[in-house]
Design goal:
The chain has helices spanning about 55-60, 80-90; strands at about 5, 10-20, 35-40, 95-100, 120-125, 135-140, 140-145, 155-160, 165-170. The longest helix is centred in the first third of the chain and has 8 residues, at about 80-90. It starts with a strand and ends in a 228-residue tail after the last strand. The chain has a domain at about 5-105 and about 120-170. It is mostly beta strands. A four-stranded antiparallel sheet has the order 1-2-3-4, with no helix packed on it. The chain has two helices and nine strands.
Length: about 400
Amino acid sequence: MGTREGEGINGKYLLIEVPNFNDAASEAEAMGSYLRLGAVKDPSLAANPGAPRATGEDLAARVTSFIDDTRKRDGCPDFLPEAERQAETAKLHTKGGWRDHSDGNRITTTRGDKVEVIKGNYRMLVLGRQEDTAGWDVSGGHIQDATDLWTAATTIEWVQNYNGTWKVTEKTEKGDVDTTYHGDTFDRFYGNKQTSITGSEAPTAERPNPTCLSSTWAQRIESYTGSAACPVPQILDETWADRIASKTTATAISDETTAQTISSTTSATSISDETAASTVSSTTTASLVSDTTIGEVRSVTIGNTSDVTIGNAASITVGATEEVTIGGLVELTIAAMLEVSLTAGVSINMGPKAELNLTNRQELSQFRTNVKNICASVSSAESVSTGAYNLMSGVINLF
């Protein structure tokens, strides 16, 4: 059909229309194309899902708004109020201007440059020959994904505490993702919160907990948390697992911890600790070291032992004490020595015993009984002072 002018409800229009260009036998199979310039002929059909198929309004009805219509950006320089944005969008399909539709294909080619300047918003929607929509929205000076796939969504809001910049909030659900990077990669995060969550405490068949694998090969790995100029106020680390296995193999390991207070608590049915090394050195510097063990203690040392205490030493045992030394024993005390036993004591020697005092020896006993098979006493001088002296002997030899 040729060019014709007409009168619509809102004004004039120019219509170029080619109906049923495929010469279909029925209206349902007919394909048409048209271009209308000017006013909308019938606003009741604009973006009406129930409009005749030849109008294309059933497709136009799929886009009736822009993301910027409800974007929160109060305080943004030169911003339009939300009500004013929505009022302009409400006239999207009835304002008139240029409207075209084709039931066939549309192919545009340009051998040279092409420039399109859009003062308003822009919305692209592609159905992909089915009902899986994809597209994007350009409104309010921002480009956002407008795809209805896996509930993907992106919102942009104006936030004053970011010094007048746009805060991008993106929520996306995807299927399998395989990502490969070639080249240098930098990740920087600035904001009030960064949260990473994998799985959940209540997994379901649709959202199961995954198996996590992390492998790293590198020339050098550095990890820093906080700094001396800006330390992290608080770090919490909590792990719940049925079994934890940790293995470290290195030529040298250096571990340094500096803190005002360190507290460590271990609760277990059984603890096994094994260390194999040529030399083990441990140094503890503290005003007070307190060590408490509740339970049976067994300690075995195979090798020489050297124990040096510089300062006072106190040892209290409530209960029987058994000490067995297989081999020579040398005890050296360089100071006054006091031994106190509050109960009966027995000392047994299964071999010769020599006792040497380089100075005077004094022994005080309430009652003393010496039972000896053979007694030999050799002294350069001996003095006995007693209130009563009883001597009973079968044979007395005086030399």
